[in-house]
Amino acid sequence: MTWLLVIALALGAFALAVFLFDLPRAVWTSLGAILAFGLAGYALQANPDLPAAPKSAATASEDQLFDVVEARREFVSEGEASRADILVTSDAMARRGRYAEAAQLLTRVTREDPQDFEAWLAQGIALTEHADGTLSRASLHAFQRAAMAKPDNLAPGYFIGLSLARQGRLMDARETWADALEQGAGDAAGRDLFVFQLQRIDAAIAATSGQMPPQTNAAPEQFADTP
């Protein structure tokens, strides 16, 4: 139902500009591209209630863009899972939108074991969600430490790219994801989901440019600078 409303609003905006304000035909294509970009961004994030400003923990838990715990576990194999019991508590907090508290708990884990890949990854996600999906210096550091602990794992690159996409930086997200796939292990956990998301972002980019989506089996640049 929400999709129909969004599309109707886009078509209404186009009609209003063309007929009521007598928009010149020469700029019709540009206006259509702008509206298509908005629809593509909506399709990529797929959440009409995505918050524009920080909310309380109770509200954040209701409006989560995705299950932060399950999304992380898609990329963590059995041998990569954290053995820290405190991760269970931090996960419960994260699922309730208490991201800052979850990240603080995870600091204790990473101090005790700087090679705990999943703890670093969970902390990066919690810090990013605490900032409403925006990468911060602290969250980027956590993702980088996770990448150092497990260089072949796809998760750090995936969640960095996801944050970029949520900020509307589709090309940066696409480059980050392609690099991560190129450098990650061929049998890495979550690879199928990663490829699917890369295809979605290619479609979103193509919708704004009127071109065919690029192939997803090659990466344009090395991923070393952005784990």
Note down, in words, how this protein is organized.
Keywords: Membrane, Transmembrane, Transmembrane helix. By secondary structure, the protein is an all-alpha fold. It has 2 domains: 44 residues, no CATH class; 153 residues, Tetratricopeptide repeat domain (Serine Threonine Protein Phosphatase 5, Tetratricopeptide repeat, Alpha Horseshoe), CATH 1.25.40. The chain is 64% helix and 0% strand. The protein is built from 11 helices and no strands. Helix 1 packs antiparallel against helix 2, helix 2 packs antiparallel against helix 11 and helix 7 packs antiparallel against helix 8. The longest helix has 19 residues. It starts with a helix and ends in an 18-residue tail after the last helix. 34% of the residues are buried. The N terminus and C terminus are likely disordered.
Secondary-structure blueprint of this entry?
Blueprint: H1 2-20, H2 28-45, H3 57-62, H4 68-73, H5 86-95, H6 99-112, H7 117-130, H8 137-149, H9 155-166, H10 170-183, H11 191-209
Helix pairs in contact: 1-2, 2-11, 5-6, 6-7, 7-8, 7-9, 8-9, 9-10, 10-11
Biased composition (Polar residues): 208-219
Region (Disordered): 208-227
Keywords: Membrane, Transmembrane, Transmembrane helix
Short description:
Residues 208-227 are annotated as: Disordered. Residues 208-219 have a biased composition (Polar residues). The chain has 227 residues and is mostly helical.
